Amino acid sequence: MNRRLWLAVVVAAAVATAISFGATRYCCRSATPSLHNVGNAQTEQIAKLEAEFNHALAGCCKKHCAARFDLSQELAKPQTDHVAMQKCVDRMCTAQTESEQATLAIVLRVRELLTPAQREKYAQLLNRQLCTPVTMESR
What does DSSP assign to residue 76? Predict the structure, then answer.
């Protein structure tokens, strides 16, 4: 393989890995920011929901990482298969979508457990968490 092609493959793989890493780090943020002034029963229920969420999120991250690995394998081939690479990216996007849907589901379920005053505080915490840009430097 000529040197330029090899360098292009390495650079493409590095860029794809960096983008995927950033997306995965972003999707793996906690969906239940620290709540104060919640009762013991609420704390127990929220802990159960978070355990379910973490299990679902681990599955999403596993799917995302598997697709990213498959993409890196495709990028390392001398002759790239654009259809296969697109399928890998589509799988990564599907995993990301599943992650976001699981996040929304737990947020809504936690809200059901809270008093109106607690919901207001929760909304503020979520706003801060969801509306603060995530950069590689902030990690």
Answer: T
Q: Specify whether the CB–CB gap between 26 and 136 falls below 8 A.
A: no
Give the tens place of pLDDT for each residue, 96-111: 999 999 999 999 999 9
Alpha helix (H) residue ranges in the chain: 3-27, 40-75, 82-113, 116-130
The amino acid present at 92, given as its one-letter code, is M
User: Which CATH number covers residue 55?
Assistant: 1.20.120
**138 located within any domain:** no
Q: What is the pLDDT of residues 52-109, one digit of tens each?
A: 999 999 999 999 999 999 999 999 999 999 999 999 999 999 999 999 999 999 999 9
Count the Cβ atoms, other than its own, within 10 Å of residue 63: 17
